[in-house]
Amino acid sequence: MPKLNTALSDQVNQRLDSIGPSGIRAFDQKVTGIPGLVKLTLGEPGFNTPEHVKEAAVESIRNNDSHYSAQKGTPALRNAISGFLKTRYNLDYDPKAEIVTTIGATEALAASLMAMLNPGDKVIVPTPAFALYVPLITVAGGTPVEVDTSKDNFVLTPQRLKGTLAKEGDAVKAVILTYPNNPTGVEYTEAELQGLADVIATKPIFVIADEIYSELTYGITHHSIAAMIPEQTILVNGLSKSHAMTGYRIGYIAAPADFVKNAAKMHAFLVTAPSNPAQAAATEALTNGLDDPKKMCVQYKKSRDYVIDCLDKLGFETVPPKGTFYIFAKIPAGFTQNSVDFATELAQDGKVGVIPGSAFGPGGEGYIRLSYAASVEDLHAAMTNMKGFMAAKTASASK
Q1: Most buried one in 1, 14, 98, 158, CB count within 10 A?
Q2: Domain named Aminotransferase class I/classII large: which ranges (predicted)?
């Protein structure tokens, strides 16, 4: 096995060297080998990809659709994305000039940030937030500005945004908004989004709207800020969560043509083009599978209500999520508030895998994130294990 020449050991991208791996993946890997562990760690839908979607991928392979795709994605898929956005959210995007298909929403974020940022540019990130935003901003040469929303029920308020923009000055290039939010499950109302749009509209900045969970909401209608300030919005979405297609790796950017021109250039440098069978499957999902997420949401809501009820009885404070398939639960008083320590003990002694809240930035410490996208059987086992774990810890502390 080759060993790196010692003279090359520090010849790396210093921005990349300054950040650690994803806190989500790192903790998941840390606990995965524990015998008997019930994992509620990753954002993996607990459903199979719909049959008609799988068949579209198979048919693509049978038809020898094995050559390079158009770099921005097949015309069929871009047309399907445009139609989906119009049908579901009344958004108008030209499939030829304003949409680019990416390798999942993560690449959409990376390509957008790399196309946007220059050294010294700042990006506002309301936290707790998806763990990849800060690393992606940093590697792209920008400076993340993390804004703790925990005291505002995990919602970025117009007042907080206005104050942050005033403090950070003209170096702010963009704001990232995730809704429904990972890890909290909080969804913005139309009025809340309009309040933020009104503030953003006063500044020459972008808003990157990460709406990957837009189809997974409960009792609330999803609205896109792109309907309010389309000229400033970079819309990121994909098929991973809505259609249980995480492994297909299909996401997309929808934005004004002038921005898409550069984002598509960055996308082409990064990956050349998406996979044809995956694009065929995504086209089918967005054309004939608009009701597929609704069926999944029925079970997700049942699972959400069951887990929240169990956690409430165990002393955890929760904000019932209006979207996604996560619960962000506050560790009860009397237990360690160090979320890594708590989650590690829960995995080792309680055989339940969750993600420490600290992985999601300021405002996350003292919380844990649980995914309720697991099977009903796993959720019941996890809650039974947690009940035993909490009881044992309480009994031990009282001795």
Answers
A1: 98
A2: 37-378
